[in-house]
Structure formats: structure tokens, C-alpha cells
Amino acid sequence: MTDYEPVIGLETHIQLNTTSKIFCSCKADSWNDGPNTNICPVCSGLPGVLPVLNEKVVEKAVILAQAMHSDIQSVSFFDRKNYFYPDLPKGYQITQYDQPIGKGGYMEVPMPDGKSCRVGIWKLHMEEDAGKTKNVAGERWVDYNRCGVPLIEMVTAPDIRTAEEAGQYLIRLRQLLRWLGISEADMEKGQLRCDANVSIRLKGDPKLNAKTEIKNVNSIEAVKSAIEKEIDRQIREVEAGNRVEAWTLEWDEDAGVLKKMRSKETEADYRYFREPDLLPVRLDDEWRNKILADFPELPLERKSRFVTKYGLPEYDAEVLTSERTLSDYFEATILNYPGDPKRASNWIMNDVLRMINDMAIQAGDLKLTPVYLADIIKLVDAGTVNTSTGKALLIKVEESGEVPGKIVEREGLAQVSDDSAIRQICRELITEYPNEVDSYKAGKVTLLGWFVGQVMKKMRGKADPNIASQVLEELLR
Length: 477
Ligand SMILES: [Zn+2]
Description:
alpha+beta, about 40% helix, 3-stranded antiparallel β-sheet
């Protein structure tokens, strides 16, 4: 069989999390609002009004461009992209065309097999979103809330070769957008949208063939299945002696199939020209430096630093850098518990992360601060409380916001290491359970653990299990 190579490029639309829209003061996020509630003459395209650029949009675009290693332009322009569609009341979209804010760049995408895939970025530009239409009882209804919502469109080079690479690119992009705090990047809410350009060629052939564009895919899994299906379809067409036509395809989520929407438009169909109502975007050094003054260490850099500086396994470093406040939480814990980073990592990955997931919050929102977590680990290390009390303390601190030591004192949670108190309880147990004592003496030594459990029960979890175990062994001899 002939060996084909897929060539894939992705266009992503990223909804920025600004308070207001890109060219007016309407609220940008309408997720919980009724149709046509966040609109004004500017974003609903009434005549005689002028757009005013929201500076926050430029700032967030510059941050993303920096993270993508793009060439950030000191002067860029807005253009009109003309087309007629009911969700576009002006008859054109204000976007950036040949002079966008970011040119070139790349994103490093680590793959699950340990390799890394570098995906080139062609350009990154700012634009306004369009509204949306839906069919209701035979009528076409339109909601303009989304008109003027700020977007960044980012176009990759055709560097992606598999559906899996496309999926990993989106996973890393989503992580990065949240890390940078510029977008919530929730695909289900349309805050991160992806169109995929797919073509195939014979392996080793430098030529690019006609590509199709897949639109309207709203989850990473769907992007992967749509790409896989399209690669298979194109191979079948070519094998049957047909040509692949430059179609635009729509993903039908329910049926899991691609449908032809239209033959693809060419750029010329849009009759781009400079937006006469807006000045060029001038980004002087002072503004640019101010925007990038607090530019953070990025997730992959932080991950490798966690491995080298703290000696964490790759897996721990990956989990702890999955989200920015979690990685901050880990480092703040280490500041207060410098002795054993791996031990702190275990507490966070096993227990703290479960609490975070159960409560659906971020690490930065925990009342169990890194200082309190470090306190609890130290209490366990010192033998003041046993491990299970330590774990229960995590929840008590989270519920009350109180200092762990105070809770231990007030509730009398300190571990009983007093030999005589434990000995007394052990003696009682031996009288209460003669059958178990006989079985133990007859060789069923695993019963020792059961006896220790009974001691813990009688002492409400506060006994030092090591001492209980020693005393029992002695008494049962
Ligand atoms: Zn408006």
C-alpha cells in the first residue's frame, strides 16, 4: 500500500477574558445572559457610530505573542473582512490581515512518548467575533451578544502530522492560555475554537496538495476524530483516482461525521481593506515593557525546573505544573518545608489535589494554605499526630481556616505515645477477644494488624500505631 503523510495546520480562535468587548463598553461574557442583552449601537452595527479599541485586548495579545515566541509588531493595522451573513450586522468583520500584531513564532509540544513536536506559528491577530443564529420553529433567530467579543486568531504552519499531535497542541495551548490568565479557554463554551486544515501527500513529497477545512469542532476529542476521518476519506479518494477538492467541512457532533458545507472561499472573496475608523495600533517600547514586566515562567520551563531543582520525578512535575496556582502552591509549601520536596509533592498529589477536585476550586483558593500544609506535614514528621489524623486535619483546616496546631490542641488529637495508656488498652483487648488471641498464637500472625486497628478504634485514632504494635507483640508472646 502507498505510504501517505497527512499535513495538518490549525486555526484557533481564542476568546479573551476581558471585561468589555473589543470596540465598545458592552460586557464581553454573555454565557449566562439572555439573547441580545449585551449590545449597543457599535457592536450591533448601527450607522454613524465609531469603534474604540479596548487596550486590554492589545495587552493580552502581546502576552500571547510573547509566549509563542512571535515577532511582536510595534505597528499593526485593523482591516475590514467583508461578507454577508445574518450574524454579522455591519456586513464586515474588523480583523487584522496583512499587518497583524504577531508574526511568526512557534510552540513546543511535548508528546506522550517523550518526543517533542515544534509547531510553527504563522501569525496571530486580533479581531471581533460575530453573533450567532439558530433555527427556532421554522424561523431564523439571531443573537448579537457575541458581536464584538475580542478574539485572537492564531494560525499554525502545516507542521502537524497526526491527529494525536493536533490534540496535544490544543491541550498545551489551553494550559498556556489559562496559565497566562488571558482566556478561560473552555472549548464547550466556545472560548477556544479550532478549525483544522487537512491534506495528504506521498511520504517525502515536498508538495502541498489541496486541503479541506474542518469547522465547528468543540472538543479536543472531536478534533482528533474529525481529522482521522478526513485523512481516511482523502486517502480513499486518491486511491480511487479522484481529486481532493478544497471543501469546507462541518463536523456533526451527534453523528460523528463530516459534512460538506461549501466550496472554500478564497481570500479575494473577502475584499479586505484597511479599517478607516481605527488608527494603527502603535505599541511603543514603554507600553510593551509594561505589559511584559510580569511575564511568568511558562509551564514547560517550570516543569523542567521542578525536576532539576527539587529532584521531582517527571510525572510529579507534570501534575504540579498542570495549573499555575497549583505550581505556586507547591513552591510555597517547599519554602515552609524545605527538607523533602518529594514528600510535600506526595501530600499535594494524593490529598490536596483530591480536595481541589472535589470542591472544583483552584489551589490558590484553598483555606488550607501552603503554610498550614507544611505545618501538618511537620506535625506528622514529629510524631505529634499520626498520618491518618494528619490527613483528617487537612479537611478540618480547610473547613475552618484555623491553624492546625490549635485544632490539635482543642480537639485533643495529639497522638498518644504514652506506653502505659496503650498497654492498658491492649490488656483489655486480650481479655475481650480470647479466640483471636488463640488464633494468633496458633500462627495467624496477620491478626496483629487487626489488634492494632482495635487499639486505634478504642483510642479514637490517636494511638501511635508503632508503639501499639510493639506492646501487642510483647503481650501476645
Ligand atoms: Zn456594544
